[in-house]
Amino acid sequence: MVGSGTQEYREYLLRSAALKADLWLLDETAPTWQSPHLAGSTQVVPSDVNALVAAARSVAERRAVRGVFCYDEALILPAAQVAEALGLPGPTVTAVRNCRDKHRTRALLRDAGLPQPKFALVADLAEAAAAAEWIGYPVVVKPRGLGASRGVALVRSAADLAGLFADARSAHYPGVPTYRAGILVEEYLEGPEISVDGAVHDGEYATMFLARKEVGLSPYFEETGHLVDAGDPLLNDPALRWILARTHRALRVDHAVTHTELRLTSRGFVVIEVNGRLGGDLIPYLGKLATGIDPGLVALDVALRTPPDLTPTHARAAGIRFLYPPEHCRVDRVTVPAPDEASGLLRATALAAPGDELRLPPLDYLQRYAYVLCAADTPEGCVGRLDEAEAQVALHARPLEHVTDARRAS
What we know:
The two termini are 41 Å apart. An 8-stranded antiparallel sheet has the order 11-10-7-8-9-12-16-14, sandwiched between helices. The longest helix is centred in the N-terminal third of the chain and has 14 residues, at 49-62. α2 packs across α3 and α4 (93-100) packs across α5. The chain has 4 domains: 7-88; 118-187, ATP-grasp fold, A domain (Dna Ligase, domain 1); 190-315, ATP-grasp fold, B domain (D-amino Acid Aminotransferase, Chain A, domain 1, 2-Layer Sandwich); 321-371 and 388-410, no CATH class. It has helices spanning 7-18, 49-62, 76-86, 93-100, 102-111, 125-135, 158-170, 238-250, 283-291, 295-303, 379-391, 406-409; strands at residues 24-27, 40-43, 119-122, 139-143, 153-155, 183-187, 193-201, 204-216, 222-229, 256-265, 268-275, 317-323, 329-335, 345-350, 357-358, 370-376, 394-399. Helices cover 31% and strands 26% of the residues. By secondary structure, the protein is an alpha+beta fold. The chain is built from 12 helices and 17 strands. GO terms for molecular function: ATP binding; ligase activity; metal ion binding. Keywords: ATP-binding, Ligase, Nucleotide-binding. Pfam families: ATP-grasp_4 (PF13535), ATPgrasp_N (PF18130), LAL_C2 (PF18603). Residues 106-304 form the ATP-grasp domain.
């Protein structure tokens, strides 16, 4: 197992996988909360691929290693390199790079004849301005190789381009490499956003669950919520099934779990990006609550080249809502309601501690102070419960004074 993520967002996956296999963690720090789920661990810097492969070989000399398990965006490429070096199942290094490099993704999907926005890869502001004029405003600027919508912004006019381009160019994601020509300028597509978690086994793609996405903090695309409905009619849409299968073939993903983001536009479904791992933001946990499909077990089966079980055991809706401060602030305290299964509130978690400083985009991203997670029999009922739960969360904070964006000033 390469990396483990954070306990709040990923332990449920680790717990499920440990029910079916002995897991040996390769990570930079010694395990703490992970320990009950592990057979053992080795401390190694995962981004040092040579050291990581050597550590994996050392484990393989002592134990029978059957696969590589990873759900961390920053580590899926090193994990694929370990699998290739040891001759184990998993996505190829090429497939992972096809997903991680958003320009490569766009080019491969375009060449396969799949619907794509107009796009251009640019290295500086002058190239970005020329690309935006060719595409036509509004456009989206995004880093070529990051994640979690960091640095992604909607540019409505030429007057906004310089500042938002600077934001995209200076954004970073811990552990993820950047590219020399690192910014994409793309046509903005109107339409609701969805994400689909799925599994590819021996080249055959199958859907696990679908989430409806909410975004906020315009012109940025911070993800503020997700809703999974086991009965979502889009799950049976032949056009969606077709584009998902064709997309994975075009990217040469024949053995992996993936998280695909799409927009439903006037032209039909358009793929925004494909991530070579399970979704973040507890989306797979919502899927498990809504359908009974266990994403941790599915990911483990795929890692072991075992046909995954994608059979739903029940049908309901589950959703999560992330709460952001209205301005840059220093947190005094966050109060949340107690979970109450009878009312459908399954989790209410403070994400910011007293003294934390929260800075909104473009100064920082994912600066949430709390989330609430609810389930109900219907999506409408789930939204109502999320509204009620959000109203019970309180942020006590003071505005941060004299906050400037040094990146734009430089």
